[in-house]
């Protein structure tokens, strides 16, 4: 019979095996042993011990966390509205068929819902595909919209870095036939505005173009059939060194070492207009129609970004790939930078906080006649941003108010509940945010303490003398100074 210490030791052994990425068969064997030990320990046959927790990759948000979150949402929504966006909403689940084949290698992360004897459904993976479905279904060819909602991914969560299985996305998209690069430039301006407004620190917006990538793959000798799969390997360059990415391309994906070396020469380039000009003169790339088109548009984009005055934080980066299948033109990703120490010449990226790009073919995939609606959009990585701000608040010990109460109605003596309730009703009716303690005869000290604990700035004190005079004393909580008298309409 197993005892609790033996079960704990076995659980620790399983955890170590998983951490060391041991052989799956060995892990499975040890897990089975652990379950058997737990069953023996259980006592009551078949009784399941219920653990009270949130599901893996999800979390609750306390009032303090929600206050920080609302501050971030308000900044983002204000920016979206400043740029003239309307708002829409779509169902949290879609027909499975709607989502299938839109996400490349990431399709395996889609949550499929159990067949309930009706339609086959999946939880939405992002807000872009539902938006394209919405446009095609309603025959909309022109809209500037934002959408803030939860999405779901069967990912291995790294919750400390803001990666979850359920999380919010904040999307801004422009759909319609417009002159090249003007909407694309506005999307980058929006990212710049939001990241500057939130004061997250130094950031860099990397920009590339799917056509430049595809042209580069072609001139490097990548077969057409391997474009998307090699693209998803290149997309890992922000997390893995080039040598590892190269061995994945060659070892797992069957690319020739020569082609991989050619790709390596290009993907390590990044710069601005000067690099674009250089590549337009590149003997190989300049001969490729797609790459030439992409570079021409990239040059135009940088001219508009110069007019917006934001090129200081923009980098044309040939390693940027973004793994999703639906991108067709410009792609971009914003990363926060962290200066590790004085000896590091280049700042180190601490993770992506926004991403997006152009997807001109997605709406056409849903339209019965294949009619295309060109689109470009950006998604703000709210969870990563929230994680950073939350850590910052914890470190600074900044006091966050979780309510907006302006005044507490208090009493200085006993038996004044009736007067307090009359006064608070008058304040509520006037649109003033007010609270009262739910006690008949609270002590004045306790009422003032409640104000200090919750950050309520003012206290309106009802007392016997004030009742005689027909006034209410107003006190500033922080300084304990009397702020003068209020004369209620009925006292």
Identify the notable features of this structure and list them briefly.
single chain; 491 residues; alpha+beta; 9-stranded mixed β-sheet; 5-stranded mixed β-sheet; 17 helices; 16 strands; 41% helix; 18% strand
Please give a structural write-up.
There is one protein chain. The strands form three sheets. The protein has a nine-stranded mixed sheet. Strands 13-12-14-15-16 form a five-stranded mixed sheet, sandwiched between helices. The chain is built from 17 helices and 16 strands. The radius of gyration is 29 Å and the shape is globular. Residues 340-344 have low confidence and may be disordered. It starts with a helix and ends in a 5-residue tail after the last strand. It has 491 residues and is of the alpha+beta class.
The number of helical segments is 17
In total, the number of strands is 16
Give the CA-based shape.
globular
Structural class: alpha+beta
Largest beta-sheet characterization: 9 strands, mixed
Report how far the terminal alpha carbons are from each other.
75 Å
User: What is the strand arrangement across the widest sheet?
Assistant: 1-4-5-11-10-9-6-8-7
Compute the CA-based radius of gyration: 29 Å
How large is the share of residues in beta strands? 15-25%
In percent, how helical is the residue content?
Answer: 40-55%
Averaged pLDDT = 88
* Weakly predicted, low-confidence segments: 340-344
């Amino acid at each position: 019979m197993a005892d609790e210490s033996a079960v704990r030791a076995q659980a620790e052994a399983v955890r170590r095996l998983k951490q060391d990425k041991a052989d799956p068969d060995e892990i499975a064997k040890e897990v089975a042993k652990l379950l058997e030990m737990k069953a023996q320990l259980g006592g009551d046959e078949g009784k399941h011990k219920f653990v009270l927790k949130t599901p893996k990759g999800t979390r609750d948000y306390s009032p303090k966390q929600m206050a920080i979150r609302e501050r971030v949402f308000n900044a983002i929504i204000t920016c979206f509205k400043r740029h003239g966006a309307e708002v829409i909403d779509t169902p949290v689940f879609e027909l499975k068929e709607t989502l299938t084949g839109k996400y490349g290698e990431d399709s395996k992360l889609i949550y499929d819902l159990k067949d309930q004897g009706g339609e086959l459904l999946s939880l939405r993976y992002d807000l872009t595909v539902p938006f394209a479905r919405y446009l095609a279904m309603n025959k909309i060819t022109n809209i500037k919209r934002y959408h803030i909602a939860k999405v779901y991914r069967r990912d291995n969560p790294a919750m400390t870095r803001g990666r979850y299985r359920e999380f919010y996305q904040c999307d801004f998209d422009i759909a319609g036939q417009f002159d090249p690069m003007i909407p694309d430039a506005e999307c980058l301006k929006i990212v710049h505005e939001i990241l500057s407004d939130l004061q997250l620190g130094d950031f860099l917006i990397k920009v590339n173009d799917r056509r430049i990538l595809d042209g580069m793959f072609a001139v490097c000798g990548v077969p057409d059939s391997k474009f998307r799969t090699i693209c998803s390997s290149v997309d890992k360059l922000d997390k893995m060194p080039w040598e590892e990415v190269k061995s994945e391309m060659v070892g797992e994906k069957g690319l020739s070492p020569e082609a991989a070396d050619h790709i390596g020469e290009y993907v390590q380039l990044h710069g601005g207009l000067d690099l674009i000009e250089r590549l337009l003169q590149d003997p190989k790339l300049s001969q490729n129609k797609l790459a030439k088109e992409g570079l021409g548009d990239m040059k135009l984009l940088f001219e508009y970004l110069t007019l917006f005055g934001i090129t200081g934080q923009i980098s044309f980066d040939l390693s940027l790939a973004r793994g999703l299948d639906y991108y067709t033109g410009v792609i971009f990703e914003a990363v926060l930078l962290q200066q590790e120490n004085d000896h590091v010449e280049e700042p180190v990226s601490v993770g992506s906080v926004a991403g997006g790009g152009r997807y001109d073919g997605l709406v056409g995939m849903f339209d019965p006649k294949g009619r295309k609606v060109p689109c470009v959009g950006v998604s703000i990585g709210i969870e990563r941003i929230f994680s950073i701000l939350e850590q910052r608040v914890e470190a600074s010990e900044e006091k966050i108010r979780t309510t907006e109460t302006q005044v507490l109605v208090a009493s200085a003596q006993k038996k004044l509940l009736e007067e307090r309730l009359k006064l608070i009703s008058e304040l509520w009716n006037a649109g003033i945010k007010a609270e009262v303690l739910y006690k008949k005869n609270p002590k004045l000290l306790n009422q003032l303490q409640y104000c200090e604990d919750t950050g309520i700035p003012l206290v309106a004190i009802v007392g016997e003398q004030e009742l005689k005079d027909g006034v209410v004393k107003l006190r500033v909580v922080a300084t304990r100074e009397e702020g003068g008298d209020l004369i209620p309409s009925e006292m």
